[in-house]
Design goal:
The complex is a heterotrimer of chains A (160), B (456) and C (439). With 160 residues, chain A is of the alpha+beta class. Chain A folds into two domains: 3-43; 55-159, Rieske [2Fe-2S] iron-sulphur domain (Rieske Iron-sulfur Protein), CATH 2.102.10.10. Chain A has two helices and ten strands. In chain A, strand 5 and strand 6 (112-115) form a beta hairpin. With 456 residues, chain B is mainly α. Chain B is built from 25 helices and no strands. In chain B, helix 10 (130-136) crosses helix 11 (138-144), helix 23 runs antiparallel to helix 24 and helix 24 (361-380) runs antiparallel to helix 25 (386-450). The longest helix of chain B has 65 residues, at 386-450. Chain B is elongated, with a radius of gyration of 38 Å. By secondary structure, chain C is mostly helical. Chain C folds into two domains: 12-286, Cytochrome Bc1 Complex, Chain C, CATH 1.20.810.10; 307-439, no CATH class. In chain C, 67% of the residues lie in helices and 2% in strands. In chain C, strand 3 (318-319) and strand 4 form a beta hairpin. Classes of the chains: A alpha+beta (160), B mainly alpha (456), C mainly alpha (439). Chain A binds chain B through residues 1, 16-17, 20-21, 23-24, 26-28, 30-31, 34, 52, 74, 76-79, 96, 100-103, 116-119, 131-132, 134-135, and chain B through 222, 226, 228, 230-231, 258-262, 264, 361, 364-365, 368-369, 371-372, 375-376, 379, 424, 427, 430-431, 433-435, 437-438, 441, 456.
């Protein structure tokens, strides 16, 4: 169609050609959006930007963990225990008891890690010191990272 | 003295004799008159008298620098070829007392091993109560009564080159040495030398099936298959030097050295009172003493009573159908097996979602809490109060339900993809339709242009 | 856009770009491209389809690169992360995986159609050569990419596959070490394959593809000999391209259907795919590779390698003093070389009399083919596999028959020798793939 034809036709119902062209434009445009939308979603990093299997940032600040206390956290698919010794040092272990995989907890009165299921005890280095557990708790590596823009430090726990 | 020597000769019966010992005298490190003569076949023709020299090379006492005279007395110096060499070396005035008789062995060893200052030189932390404890044991008491067939120091710590109950003294190893007869994995075999020997034990009237039973237990499996040296073997329950079977009322303390929680719970229960009155041996009534297997929920006394299966220990007292114990026990059994089934079902849902590629970490993590609850509930059985168990079961069931819900939502996400597929296919169909229409249109124009008409 | 600002060349933007980039020349080039219309025109679509699927691979590959981490401690976890945590990650990864397979299929069809329609004749010999180069590049893409998720299946398939060059005398061990980055398949292999897959091969492919497309553009579409055109050729823009697009969207529909439906149980019942092409193992990540575990039972390479795998399995350990595997590797080497030489062997297709080279090489290849058939017959019979022996005999008969017909061919008529060999090769490849699939 020439330009003058187009001007002549302004105001009249669309020709078959314009209809087909319009349809095709719609279709291809929809395709473009249908591709761009997932791609955009893909590129935006997920909430947990890295695989949680190798390393995890704990959901509470290092300063919230007082000396002679411990907290269970989630590491990948298993529980972990982070504790601060009475002397103030941060340590982290797998919280899966080496006896029958119960979740252990920190016992402040004894300054040791206990497993309530069958009365197993671990010392502050994870060594099995009493009760049925046959092996020490596997230890994790603990690092501190200053919080960006906020106060305090993040605790970053990674596998040894 | 001569009788003692003969007794020693008879006691230390000839073992395997090595040709090396029959050859020229072996000059050993720390050689003395003792080793020079006792390694020489010409001077000491009896192989049993020469055997200690070679064996002592592996002995822990030898490794610590002790010599023959430190235990046997006498003089280790002097010229072996002098005419009075034997008399000089074997001089009672110099403290020589040869090899001890079996009944005297504990005292012989105890001269050093019960002496704090002596042991403190070599190991400041060493125990010195072995002989004292031994005298309280069944072995010690019988030895004091004159029974020389019972175990004394050498029986367990000595060497048994041909596997018989008779032991050789030289070549003793530390307990931590894997070749020692009392290294944890070897302890049961050592005790079994006598205690599994039906003929040897006949006059004592006690069973000889303990070793066979224990070998099939979970404790043996833990020791041998999982290499857990802390797994209980004979001495952990019976004691080693003060060995005796635990008293009936003390069993929960013995088992409770490892199984703290269950023992505590049991001692709080009414079962303890009843068992003590009846003289029943606490833990072993249900779990056995030597052939201890993995416990299961089916050990509980429950309805429907399993047909064709051996009745549990509960039957012995609670055989009446109207016994309230049956109802309580059935409640516990139902709770435990129910929670187990819930966990299995939740696991199946989670697994299905995982197999379809959905993220199930959340669900799995939540489910581990249900496992904790199940273990807690199983421990609580030992107080024999049904409400305790059902309470823990209820907590665990809530967690398992949670986990299953998370698994289900992962599956739902998966099926979202099916809806996405349907929409996308519709969209593609629409695009193809538009393309087809356009193709027809441009084809028409093209054919028209070929026919010579103006391109529009 | 008012009409007053439009000049004869179009909108201001177009004029701007054209003055600086010379776009109008490009437009003329493509605008003048024409596609012949005849009863074999259907086969013209496959090249463009391969290009489309390759572009899908590039796009999804680049997206995967945003999250993938090479290295034995992170690769599997990162793919797991993409598939479970990244939004639409499952789609991107599955597209990459399934589209790779579809691309191999399409490339094989394209290769086959070009071969049997003899589109390689003069002056398109170099198009054929670059195309074949692309074919081998794509195979290498497939082989290197397969290892990248570092899962059990891929690890063992790669171990088996990289063992093959060892059969080559003198340089065999060195080649294996070169390919693996070490004596065994390890993280070093992963690094090497990653570099191959995302850098080296894309660079080589860009060059080869550029030349290939430029040559296609230069020489236009080849019309098979003796075929009558049904009228004037169709303009590429927009007629043929629109048809291309229909095909591409249809391929997209097939891809996403496989991706979503394959993991669900009734898929195998609805489609016969499972027998020949099992998509589930491409979509499920499986277990992480453990180099110290033993290989799972029944490990098999991807379907486009099955023919090689089965052949090497079927060869006896000793062939006339040579190691069986070596004979297999040599045979495939000769086969690949023969493929490259096809335009120069089939001089009749270009209307030329046979040259000394084509006669010698062709004769050698015929003898080689007969020897291979004889070997197959003998070793299959020896192993009691009578179907295989019969196939060997049939192959030899086919070659002899083709040679006989060639000798008796009236002068001036087209030689059918090359397509005859082609059919034999196709039968062999399809047969061995089916055997591999069913065993």
């Amino acid at each position: 169609m020439t330009e003058s034809d187009k001007e002549d036709r302004r105001g009249s119902p669309p020709t078959r050609r314009e209809f087909v062209d319009g349809l095709l434009t719609c279709a291809l445009g929809a395709t473009a959006i249908a591709v761009a939308f997932p791609v955009a979603g893909y590129i935006v990093p997920p909430d947990a930007p890295e695989s949680q299997d190798a390393s995890v940032v704990l959901p509470f600040a290092a300063e919230e963990l007082l000396p002679n206390s411990g907290r269970v956290f989630r590491f990948g698919n298993e529980p972990g225990l982070v504790l601060r010794t009475p002397a103030g040092e941060l340590r982290a272990f797998s919280a899966r008891c080496t006896h029958l995989s119960c979740t252990v907890q920190y016992a402040p009165e004894q300054s040791r890690v206990s497993c309530a299921c069958h009365g197993g005890w671990f010392d502050l280095s994870g060594r099995n010191v009493a009760g049925p557990p046959p092996r020490p708790l596997p230890a994790f590596v603990v690092n501190l990272r200053r919080r960006a823009g906020g106060e305090g430090h993040d605790i970053v726990v990674s596998r040894a | 003295m001569k009788r003692l020597a003969i007794a020693a000769l008879l006691f230390f019966a000839p073992a395997t004799s090595t040709p090396a010992q029959d050859a020229a005298p072996a000059p050993a490190a720390g050689a003395s008159t003792c080793t020079t003569c006792h390694a020489d076949a010409a001077r000491v023709p009896d192989p049993a008298q020469r055997e200690p020299v070679a064996a002592f090379a592996d002995d822990i006492h030898g490794a610590r620098g002790l010599g023959c005279h430190d235990c046997h007395g006498g003089r280790p110096d002097g010229d072996p070829s002098a005419p009075d060499a034997v008399a000089r070396a074997h001089d009672p005035a110099a403290g020589w007392h040869g090899a001890p008789a079996p009944a005297d062995v504990p005292e012989f060893c105890g001269r050093c091993h019960s002496d704090a200052s002596m042991m403190g030189r070599y190991n400041p932390d060493a125990r010195i109560d072995q002989v004292a404890k031994y005298r309280t044991s069944v072995h010690g008491q019988k030895l004091a009564e004159g029974d020389t067939r019972v175990a004394q120091c050498l029986s367990c710590h000595g060497r048994h080159p041909d596997g018989t109950p008779r032991a050789l003294a030289h070549g003793m190893r530390a307990v931590s040495d894997p070749l020692s007869p009392v290294h944890p994995p070897n302890v049961a075999t050592t005790c079994a030398r006598c205690h599994a020997h039906a003929a040897y034990m006949h006059e004592y009237g006690i069973p000889t099936d303990q070793f066979a039973d224990w070998s099939q237990s979970v404790h043996a499996a833990q020791l041998f298959e999982q290499d857990d040296l802390s797994a209980p073997t004979c001495n952990d329950c019976h004691g080693n030097h003060g060995a005796h079977p635990p008293g009936v009322e003390d069993l929960s303390f013995v088992c409770g050295t490892c199984h703290l929680r269950q023992a505590d719970l049991f001692r709080q229960s009414t079962m303890k009172v009843a068992f003590d009155e009846m003289g029943l041996g606490e833990c072993i009534v249900c779990h056995g003493n030597h052939r201890i297997g993995t416990p299961g929920d089916d050990m509980l006394f429950h309805e429907p009573l399993p047909a064709g299966r051996a009745p549990t220990a509960c039957w012995t007292c609670h055989a009446r159908a109207e016994d309230p114990a049956l109802a309580a026990s059935t409640r516990m059994w139902a709770g435990l097996t129910g929670l187990d089934a819930r966990i299995v079902a939740a696991k199946a849902v989670i697994h299905e979602a995982g197999a379809k590629g959905m993220p199930v970490g959340d669900a799995e993590y939540r489910l581990s809490g249900a496992n904790d609850a199940l273990i807690e509930a199983r421990a609580l059985v030992h107080r024999f109060v049904a409400d305790d168990v059902t309470g823990a079961v209820a907590k665990g069931t809530a967690v398992a339900d949670d986990a299953e819900a998370l698994g289900k939502s992962a599956l739902d996400d998966f099926f979202f993809r099916h809806r996405w597929l349907a929409v996308s296919l519709l969209g593609i169909a629409f695009v193809i339709l538009a393309l087809v229409l356009k193709v027809r249109q441009v084809d028409r124009r093209w054919r028209a242009s070929l026919a010579g008409g103006p391109r529009r | 856009m008012t009409s007053s600002s439009r000049g004869p060349e179009g909108s201001p933007l177009r004029r701007f770009l054209d003055e600086r980039l010379g776009l109008s020349a490009l437009r003329d080039l493509i605008g003048h491209k024409q596609v012949p219309v005849h009863r074999h025109s259907f086969w013209y679509y496959w090249g463009g389809m391969a290009l489309f699927l390759f572009l899908v691979q590039v796009a999804t590959g680049i997206l995967l690169l945003l999250y993938y981490r090479p290295g034995p401690t992170e690769a599997w976890e990162s793919v797991q992360f993409i598939v479970t945590r990244v939004r639409w990650g499952w789609l991107v990864r599955s597209l990459h995986s399934i589209s790779a397979n579809l691309l191999m299929l399409v490339v094989l069809v394209h290769l086959g159609s070009v071969f049997f329609l003899r589109a390689y004749r003069r002056p398109r010999e170099l198009t054929w050569v670059t195309g074949l180069g692309l074919f081998f590049l794509f195979i290498t893409f497939g082989f290197s990419g397969y290892l990248l998720p570092w899962n059990e299946l891929a690890f063992f398939a790669t171990s088996v596959g990289t063992e093959i060059p060892r059969a080559i005398p003198v340089v065999g061990d060195f080649l294996v070490r070169l390919v693996r980055g070490g004596p065994e398949v390890t993280g070093a292999t992963l690094s090497r394959f990653y570099g191959l897959h995302v850098a080296i091969l894309p660079a080589l492919t860009t060059v080869a593809l550029g030349i290939h497309l430029a040559l296609v553009q230069k020489h236009g579409m080849s019309v098979p000999g003796g075929v009558r055109e049904k009228g004037p050729p169709m303009p590429f823009l927009p007629n043929f391209l629109l048809r291309d697009l229909i095909g591409w969207f249809a391929a997209l529909a097939v891809l996403i259907t496989i991706i979503v439906l394959a993991p669900t149980a009734p898929f195998g019942a609805l489609f016969p795919f499972d027998a020949l092409f099992d998509p589930k193992h491409l979509l499920e990540l499986g277990e992480k590779a453990d180099p110290f575990a033993s290989a799972p039972v029944g490990i098999k390479p991807e379907w486009y390698f099955l023919f090689m795998f089965e052949t090497l399995k079927a060869l006896p350990a000793d062939v006339a003093g040579l190691e069986g595997e070596l004979v297999g590797v040599l045979a495939f080497g000769v086969g690949a070389l023969a493929l490259f030489l096809v335009p120069f062997l089939d001089r009749g297709a270009s209307g030329l009399p046979p040259s000394r080279f084509s006669r010698l090489a062709g004769g050698a290849l015929a003898l080689f083919g007969l020897a291979m058939c004889a070997l197959a017959t003998w070793s299959m019979a020896h192993a009691g596999r009578w179907l295989g022996a019969a196939a060997g005999v049939a192959g030899a008969a086919w070659i002899l028959g083709a040679l006989l017909l060639e000798c008796r061919r009236p002068p001036g008529s087209a030689s059918r020798l090359v397509p005859a060999f082609g059919w034999l090769v196709v039968a062999f490849l399809v047969g061995m793939t089916v055997v591999g699939r069913l065993s």
